[in-house]
Amino acid sequence: MANDLMFEKPLVELQKKIEELRSFSEQSGLDFSEEIRKLEEKADSLASHLYDDLSPWQRTQMARHSERPTTLDYIKGMCTDFLELHGDRAFGDDQAIVAGIAKLDGIPVTIMGHQKGRDTKENIARRWGMAQPEGYRKTLRLMKQAEKFRRPVICFIDTSGAYPGIASEERGIGEAIARNLLEMAALKTPIICVVTGEGGSGGALALGIGDRVYMLENSIYGVISPEGAAALLWKDSGQAQRAADTMKISADHIHSFGVVDGVIKEPEGGAHKDNEATIANVRETIVTALRELLEIPTDVLVEQRYQKFKNMGHYANG
Amino acid sequence: MLKDLFHKKKQRYATLTSQDVAERLGRTRTAPVEVSVPEGLMTKCKHCGEATFTKELEKNLKVCPNCGYHYTVNAMERILMTLDEGRFFEYDADMTAMDPLGFPEYPAKLEREMKKSGLKEAVVTGEGTIGGFPVVLGVMDSTFFMGSLGSVAGEKITRAIERAIAKRYPLILFTASGGARMQEGIYSLMQMAKTSAALAKLHEEGILYIAVNTYPTTGGVTASFAMLGDLNIAEPGALIGFAGRRIIEQTIRQKLPDDFQTAEFLLKNGMLDMVVPRKDMKQTLATVLELHGGGARGE
């Protein structure tokens, strides 16, 4: 299969062998059921061995898998009546981020996220989900609109970072991210965020100030990409694998640091092996959180959000 | 004068001399403080090449008298040239970094940085007065770990913001940072969230915040408190940007213009209110404070 990752090769080859044996058995009429059963057992044990203890680098590869569900897959898979809304009202419409209004479990929500493409053409149009200032300003406009109507906000995070280009800097990418952080921290409506794939640096954080923040099991969240860290630390971006370990970017680490509120299970082998099941898991987590958050008075909610982020950090003699 | 109309009750301060400030910041006034200005009688400007008497350069607030090049100054020098008579009461002076990721060689590097800079962390916060107006002041220092933003800087700045709210004093932050403290991983990223959240409260309370961007203000600091002032000011020629020059050049495969990510470039693009030469900075800040009746909205 084209969507398999390098480290899955032994398992894929075993599964291929089982398939071959099965079809040979059918064609020849010979009974290989015992052999097939044994091989299947072996495949099961290999799979649990492979997937139960993924390294941070393996998870990074899964987080970046081109067939993982994208923001639009999540929105369309879990919501009804989705209306995509466009533009920042100042410069343009950045397709690296999609946003709109929809109903989730009967509740109107403002829903948005970084959008990667399925093929090269779409990825060029969407800049591989790397947003420019107008993308973040679109999300801010729609968050303020959500606040006006006390509509909850749901953000999907999946970007390697904000787009590093001349236009980004000219139009103030730093200011655009900063403004989102400030406004989200004080937004008078519930915010739920899910890191679905790559949570890369400030470009990810700009959609990440929530009352609840979750990560998918094989997503990553970091201050810098493993490649970037490797280039800075060892002057060699080829050491990304080592950097992924050192930087502690996988969901289990980030959760143990208290930076996210929960980790959402993925199907065995990763989200891309069963998009529907993944989307169902994410939906369940969001809907449960949403029902809880809607019970909390707004001023309490905003103060709790502040305290949550205020407590993040480690220092001595303070 | 306007100032007299809004005159506040005289604040009591521990009055510190320059020497005291220096000691508080963990070094003496005579210690070599700036790598860009080597000790010696003359200093050669790295911009125009003109040699200037080092003493004269110091007197000129470390600005080249020939071409106006602004040398970087450390936190102590900045405090001395900004606050009235060097009176400064420091907050959280002893706070130091931990190693939450168990990052290879981080504790040893911290120690080296402390020794090299004479500082405990990349930001010094406290209070004093400017033109008689009390302010909460934070000054980042790029001589410590490139001014990188870690848990300590994030916490000190957040506490400074909370104190500004509690005392209803305006806030001034001089930024100088190479970006996130990579060695603290996700905690470093979260300092952007934390400081911005505190600034949201400050703005809500009607308290003035002036961000002064100095060389270099980059990465996570640019994408948080450096850009969130009621007024965003910068020193001439300061490097200010989010993404690094090399990363952008690699991404777009073209060479960037020389003035890219300078204070002047940001001013032209509408990201700054003013570019203010160092010699005018204190007076400009005092005027802004005066125009805001001291810097906090009347209750």
From TrEMBL, chain A:
Similarity annotation: Belongs to the AccA family.
SUPFAM superfamilies xrefs: ClpP/crotonase
Natural source organism: Tumebacillus flagellatus
Lineage: Bacteria, Bacillati, Bacillota, Bacilli, Bacillales
GO molecular function, one term: acetyl-CoA carboxylase activity
Cell compartment(s), UniProt: Cytoplasm
Residues of the CoA carboxyltransferase C-terminal domain: 38-292
Keyword annotations of the record: ATP-binding, Cytoplasm, Fatty acid biosynthesis, Fatty acid metabolism, Ligase, Lipid biosynthesis, Lipid metabolism, Nucleotide-binding, Transferase
Reactions this protein catalyses: N(6)-carboxybiotinyl-L-lysyl-[protein] + acetyl-CoA = N(6)-biotinyl-L-lysyl-[protein] + malonyl-CoA
Role according to the record: Component of the acetyl coenzyme A carboxylase (ACC) complex. First, biotin carboxylase catalyzes the carboxylation of biotin on its carrier protein (BCCP) and then the CO(2) group is transferred by the carboxyltransferase to acetyl-CoA to form malonyl-CoA.
Protein's UniProt keywords contain ATP-binding: yes
Pathway as given in its UniProt record: Lipid metabolism; malonyl-CoA biosynthesis; malonyl-CoA from acetyl-CoA: step 1/1
Pfam families found in the cross-reference section: ACCA
Enzyme Commission number(s): 2.1.3.15
GO biological process: fatty acid biosynthetic process; malonyl-CoA biosynthetic process
Entry-linked InterPro entries: Acetyl_CoA_COase_a_su, ClpP/crotonase-like_dom_sf, COA_CT_C
Identification of the protein by name: Acetyl-coenzyme A carboxylase carboxyl transferase subunit alpha
Subunit organization: Acetyl-CoA carboxylase is a heterohexamer composed of biotin carboxyl carrier protein (AccB), biotin carboxylase (AccC) and two subunits each of ACCase subunit alpha (AccA) and ACCase subunit beta (AccD).
GO cellular component entries: acetyl-CoA carboxylase complex
Automatic annotation (TrEMBL), chain B:
Localisation per UniProt entry: Cytoplasm
Keyword Zinc-finger assigned: yes
Keyword Transferase: yes
EC numbers for this chain: 2.1.3.15
Pfam families with a match to the protein in the record: Carboxyl_trans, Zn_ribbon_ACC
Zinc finger (C4-type) boundaries: 45-67
Function field: Component of the acetyl coenzyme A carboxylase (ACC) complex. Biotin carboxylase (BC) catalyzes the carboxylation of biotin on its carrier protein (BCCP) and then the CO(2) group is transferred by the transcarboxylase to acetyl-CoA to form malonyl-CoA.
Similarity remark: Belongs to the AccD/PCCB family.
Protein name: Acetyl-coenzyme A carboxylase carboxyl transferase subunit beta
Gene that this polypeptide is encoded by: accD
